[in-house]
Amino acid sequence: MLGTIGDVDVDLGAFDVGAFGLGAFGLGVDLGIVARQVDLGREIDRRTTTRFRRELGEAPHDGLVESVLHAGATDTLGPVQVTVAGAPVGDVARHRRQRRHDEADDDDDREPRDGAHRLLRGAGEDVHTRLVDRDGPPMKRRCFDEWVPLPIASRADVPPFHVMEVIRRAGELERAGHEVLHLEVGQPSTPAPAGALEAAAEAMRREPLGYTDALGIPDLRTGIAAHYATTYGLDVDPRRIVATTGASGGFTLAFLACFEPGDRVVVASPGYPCYRNVLAALDIEVVDVPVGPETRFQPTPELLEANGPLHGVVIASPSNPAGTMLDADELARLVGWCDSAGVRLVSDEIYHGLTYGTTVATAAACSDDAVVVNSFSKYWSMTGWRIGWLVAPADLVRPIERLAQNLVINAPTISQHAAVAALGCRDECEENVARYVRNRAVLLHRLPRMGLDRLAPADGAFYVYADVTDLGRPATDLCSTWLEELGVATTPGIDFDPTRGERFVRFSFAGATADIEAACDRLEGWLVGR
Fold first, then answer.
1. What are residue 142's DSSP bridge partners?
2. 0.90 cut: is pTM over it?
3. In angstroms, rounded to a whole number, what is the distance separating the alpha carbons of residues 30 and 350?
């Protein structure tokens, strides 16, 4: 079993390491003395491991040392694997390594001071050490009377949400006095409906705004159920409605309730990056299915069938970034395949209400086993209020409730009250949609005139996804140049498609029409003059 000795992970049940000291690393831990005190036949788990630490000083955290100890050929007990992982390597340690190198014989097989590999010898074993550069401050934790590096969970090693990086840089430019036209952000430029604002103010005056039921306040759950009757002609039991902390909170609850670690879940590329990142953080295997113009950037039963055994599928209609939709027949066929294959379908319907000449269909009308995710963020212009909902299968409501009780307690109380009122503000929301119609028309007319004529069908949402391959530069480079030189913020496709994303740029038309037109003027001037 793998145990930990000092800053070393070692297979304690395999082999006596012998009198090999880690002083050679500048860590001052005699591994041999420690290892000889271990019953080599026992299995030692992490809870019973003896820890020995040494103060590593205030040296900058500019490197990580990793090593593998290989036992001699005569060993019958198997190899010992030793890893020094997470040890800060600073000026003091570098000085010690240099001093040892300077004192070494000319025929010693050791690398120069700052090289990538070093071969050390001790007690008949070879230790190959690699110095890996890593930026950042020292991470420390007190253990007995010593300081050691703090671990970071591997599940946190997910890619950044690149559009947030663009938003951050755009904000820096604006604070420095530069004008930025925002075609990157996937949120309305309008505030929450007036009725929602009034309801929130009234709730602050009359309510303590304490905890609510984890599933949401009754008025909100019944109001959302009524919305399904009005919008889709669908009778949904209010007991199946779960109020969530935005759609993002809904996805986390749904993924936790539906899938085990190691389950295989399909996510289409291009697609919203947080699907795959949250799934990966939960140790769920993401099955990436590339989609393109031939399927209108949507998955099909045939594509799913080709990917072997599956446990889940995440779909979005309208989709982000492509804006394409599944019509009622296509959606029913996809849901039917999932039901017959025993695959859980999770349907992202956050852009319902933002459609242009196409009738929208909900997965809730196709199967009682589908999980529907929606939110007040887009159609109701309430992104920052962090209020969404699930339509959950009846047998998942109680598991999701238990998860919500422990993870979030409840969706924001004031936002729940505001959302109840927002459901009755359809006229105001439709005014926003009318503006999106105008903005969409501007982009669909102007982008082809600039030479960007390979566009995904923008059936819904407020995005145009453009193939920029002919411009001869990666999308991240283009978006950075447009932001820095033109003051036009856009989103590179790498957010949505890890493999092909550098060929695409997403343009959001959620802002003011004047801004969309001005951005097109700047882009057209740059593209014509380059």
1. 147
2. no
3. 58
